[in-house]
Every structure is written in C-alpha cells, then in structure tokens.
Design a protein that fits this description.
- The mean pLDDT is about 90.
- With about 190 residues, the chain is an alpha+beta fold.
- The chain starts with about 25 loop residues before the first strand and ends with a strand.
- The protein has seven helices and four strands.
- Helix 4 packs antiparallel against helix 6.
- Strand 2 and strand 3 form a beta hairpin.
C-alpha cells in the first residue's frame, strides 16, 4: 500500500454564507462543517455515532425535527467525508423557510453538543451502525470501499473492532465530538 498523507483542513475564521437565487419554490439548504476527528483517529467511532444521531438515519434529529415535526423539508440528513474532515447537513426546503430551517438545523447540532441525545436516539443509531457494518461484510463493493478508505484514511478498521468501539460510545463521547464541529459555510 502507498502511504497517502491526509489532506489539511483548516478551521474556519468565520462562517461564510453563500446564496444562489433561482426562480424555484424548492431549494437546498446546506450547512458545511469542519470535523475535529478523522477516519484514523481513536474517536472515529464516536464521530460515526455523532453523525448518526444528528442526521445519518431516518430516526436522526435533522430528519425528525426539520422534516417530520416542523414540516420544513422534503428530506434532511447529514453526510461526512472523514478523510477530509468535512460534514454537510442537508435539507431540501421551501426557499421562503430558509431561516427557520437553518435555525432548527443549528439547534439540533447545539443539542448534540450539549449531550441532549435520548436513549432511543442513541440505541437506534448504535443498532443501525452495527447492522450496516456487519451487512457490509456481505457486499464486495463495501469491502473494497472499506479497504480503500483505510488506505486513504490512514488506518484499517476491522469490522469487529469498529463494532465493539461503536457499542462502547457514550452520550458524553458524542457530545465531545460535536463540540469540536465548526460551522464553515451556509
């Protein structure tokens, strides 16, 4: 394997807001964040849990609060690039509800930072992650992806190792990761 250095990702000095206006009713709201943890870090399992609780699944805070409770989005989720150390929080919204949707999304991030994660959110996320990791063992594409991510990310996480680590992640571990997340671009 070739040693590939991790890309440098600086923390933002201030939050940038970029608005592209089109003559549409439905738009896309994206919050770009810098992550404090990368794929090779020991805290990577807590990062997975953080993302899962915030927006990785249909039971996650973004989906439940922005889409289900507030009815502001047709979809809402978060995704990460753990090699580059970036995350996007995404919502498909009515463009007239931009500020309301943004504020609710930021509130969800703040709630995770403060450890406001319910037992059901914690356990549903843990189960979904573990199931995804284990089912990946049956998918050649996911096996190849995991090996490539390990090569590029600087660490080969074994499935059993990662499952055990995810099962040990606490609410405090998730909050600690979340407190290091920095909003970069809206």
């Amino acid at each position: 394997l070739v040693d590939i250095p991790a890309p440098a990702v600086a923390q933002p000095d201030s939050v940038r807001t970029v608005v592209e206006r089109l003559d549409v009713l439905q738009g896309v709201l994206v919050l770009g964040c810098r992550l404090p943890v990368r794929y090779a870090d020991d805290a990577y399992p807590a990062l997975l849990m953080y993302n899962g609780v915030l927006g990785g699944f249909s039971h996650s805070k973004l989906f439940m609060e922005v889409r289900e409770r507030a009815s502001l989005a047709y979809t809402a989720f978060s995704r990460m690039d753990t090699v580059k150390g970036v995350q996007i929080l995404f919502a498909g919204i009515d463009v007239g509800k931009f500020e309301q949707a943004r504020d609710i999304m930021l509130r969800q991030l703040d709630d995770v930072r403060e450890g406001k994660v319910t037992d059901s959110e914690l356990e549903a996320t843990r189960k979904a992650l573990v199931n995804g990791l284990r089912s990946g063992l049956d998918d050649p594409g996911q096996i190849i992806h995991a090996r490539l991510l390990g090569a590029v990310g600087g660490r080969q996480w074994g499935v059993d190792e990662l499952v055990a680590a995810v099962e040990d992640v606490t609410r405090d571990d998730i909050a600690e990761v979340a407190r290091g997340v920095a909003l970069d671009t809206v």
